[in-house]
Design brief:
The chain is α/β, with parallel strands linked by helices. It has 16 helices and 27 strands. It has three domains: 16-38 and 236-471, ANL, N-terminal domain (Rossmann fold); 64-217, 3-Layer(aba) Sandwich (Rossmann fold); 476-574, 2-Layer Sandwich (GMP Synthetase, Chain A, domain 3), CATH 3.30.300.30. The longest helix has 19 residues, at 242-260. The N and C termini lie far apart (59 Å).
């Protein structure tokens, strides 16, 4: 048996144990040396030293260089230490994609503290839970969302509130104009009404007077608390250690290389970050990997503004575009989409939800660059699998396990199933979290003794090691004893030329237990229920066909753009 010894790992590389290795693109290693960095700070520091004069981030035409990122991050970190935050203290960041975000991330980590990413669209109840659960002592919040924080701040352990505006780093007069417009449109709670509030720029100014004290971080120190969406209960914090995040950055970097071949190596990679940085996909692939690659990261503050989003992309030679299926779909259906120069696009990452065949095929036909679908979770930092980035066609799978990653498919009794048989996708690798924050009981529920993490997703692996997701356990529809997976139904319906978006859920039925109901956003306003039912007959077995169709103007989605089936189920039952 051949083995690979690297970074303290010893793993079988026989075809039987890890068949996917035989199908890796040329140049992609079986393992990554994730122990080469002791912390995310070391990774950042190396990149900054190499790319110091290059632009690091741009937001609304305001650019900051790697040198400026370095300086302002030190100022922020020095301020945190000056107000008494000790190693391991939690700092919450509640912002959309603005320049302050990466500065605060690096500054927090350099101070030896832990980043707690917070969805700025949280309700007061959701925010209060996350702040209490994490024990955050400082929060940086965009003033647009200060009113939410103001309602709960006294119930938390927060000692300091840092408030910032979108234009705070834009300089005068642009910054003042942007903030004035936003404040008047949003009619926001003034910053001074939030207890202990300090402006972000004042924090940087105060930090500039002090020296940041280096903190000797280790790979096992906590870097991020990444809270899950709470779809299976109360929201839990996935504890991501420095080594978890480093491993996933290096895994992703290695996997991207085949797709980047053929481009001018001297030309800076441009990454468009439309997904929010508080989401694990953008955090790792855009923020962390972007810095590691010396890329220019284009921050899109409001990706729901599709015309504005497209206008921003027209300013750049876009090389990488991580997004979710709904965002790709929205771009494709905008009349200005073809005005973007896509000739430099090399990697379009699809994650967060299943990429539908109709969307993938139209994207490739329009841009010449395939959507490379991957898979991961907050608990896996996030990437676990991905299709080869030099692929030229849609595979319908989530691809192969990344380097240093193992995937097995297990039944409800924890036994590995044969290739081609459905079961729960289980993941083992250096990117798997240390556990849920202060929830040993919940951690035990998702971890096998041999180190495999239970994803909660049902998949099928073929003989080559490619995996196809058939859905989450809780989303499965049971019709007369037969399993129906919503992804399959949605993929078929989405291929109809008159459909823009679709979601499938189970509807209780006295005869068969459940039947399939679909919620559809029409592209063709003349599309009828019967047309869709007839269309499904051509491609789905009888028990899989939708029995009910409801047309909607829009479907409920997360802030990342993932369709929320759970919010449609009450409507289905009520109907």
């Amino acid at each position: 048996m051949n083995t690979v010894h690297e970074a303290g790992l010893e793993r079988s590389t026989t075809a039987g144990a890890r068949p996917w290795l035989q199908h890796y693109p040329d140049g992609v290693p079986a393992e990554v040396d994730w122990a080469r960095y002791r912390s995310c700070v070391e990774l950042f520091d190396e990149a900054i030293a190499q790319y110091r004069k290059a632009d690091a981030y741009v937001c609304m035409d305001k650019r900051i260089t790697y040198d400026e990122l370095d300086r302002m991050a030190n100022q922020f970190g020095a301020w945190l230490q000056s107000v008494g935050l000790e190693r391991g203290a939690r700092v919450a960041l509640m912002m959309p994609n603005v320049l302050q975000y990466p500065i605060a991330i690096l500054g927090t980590l350099r101070a030896g503290c832990v980043v707690v990413n917070v969805n700025p669209l949280y309700t007061p109840r959701e925010l209060e839970h996350q702040l209490k659960d994490s024990g955050a002592e400082v929060i940086v919040v965009l003033e647009n969302f200060a009113s939410t924080l103001e309602q709960v701040v006294e119930k938390t352990r927060l000692r300091h509130v840092v408030v910032t505006g979108i234009g705070d780093l834009f300089g005068f007069p642009k910054g003042a104009i942007v903030n004035f417009v936003v404040r008047n449109v949003k009619k926001m709670v003034p910053a001074y009404e939030v207890p202990n509030a300090t402006r972000f720029n004042a924090v940087l100014a105060e930090g500039a007077k002090r020296a940041l004290k280096p903190v000797p971080l280790t790979p096992d120190d906590v870097a991020f608390l990444q809270y899950t969406g709470g779809t299976t209960g109360v929201s839990k914090g996935a504890t991501l250690l420095h080594r978890n995040v480093i491993a996933n950055v290096l895994q992703s970097e290695a996997w991207m290389q085949p797709g980047l071949k053929g481009r001018n190596a001297n030309e800076q990679v441009v990454v468009v970050c439309a997904l929010p940085l508080y989401h694990i996909f953008a955090l790792t692939v855009c923020c962390m990997l972007g810095v590691k690659s010396g890329a220019l990261v284009v921050l899109i503050t409001n990706p729901r503004d599709i015309p504005g989003f497209i206008a921003e992309m027209k300013k750049h030679k876009v090389v990488m575009l991580p997004a979710v299926n709904t965002l790709y779909n929205a771009l494709l259906h905008h009349p200005d989409f073809k005005s973007v120069d896509w000739s430099h696009l090399r990697v379009a990452n699809g994650g967060g939800m299943a990429v539908q065949r109709a969307v993938a095929e139209k994207w490739f036909a329009t841009t010449g660059c395939p959507i490379v679908e991957g898979y991961g979770l907050s608990e896996t930092s996030p990437s676990a699998t991905c299709n080869p980035t030099d692929a030229t066609s849609y595979s319908g799978t989530i691809g192969y396990p990344l380097p240093s990653t193992e995937i097995v498919i297990r039944d409800d009794d924890g036994r590995d199933v044969a290739p081609g048989e459905p079961g729960e996708i289980c993941i083992r690798g250096p990117q798997v979290m240390a556990g849920y924050w202060n929830r040993a009981d919940e951690t035990a529920k998702v971890m096998y003794p041999d180190g495999f993490f239970k994803s909660g997703d049902i998949g099928v692996m073929d003989e080559r090691g490619q995996t196809k997701i058939v859905d989450r356990k809780k989303d499965m529809i049971l019709v007369s004893g037969f399993n129906v997976y919503p992804n399959e139904v949605e993929d078929v319906i989405a291929s109809h030329p008159g459909v823009l978006e679709v979601a499938a859920v189970g509807l209780p039925d006295a005869h068969s237990g459940e039947v399939v109901k679909i919620f559809v956003v029409r592209k063709d306003p003349t599309l009828t229920e019967q047309q869709l039912i007839d269309y499904s007959k051509e491609q789905l077995a009888g028990y899989k066909r939708p029995k009910f169709v409801e047309f909607r103007d829009e479907l409920p989605k997360t802030n990342v753009g993932k369709i929320l089936r759970r919010e449609l189920r009450p409507a289905a039952v009520a109907a």
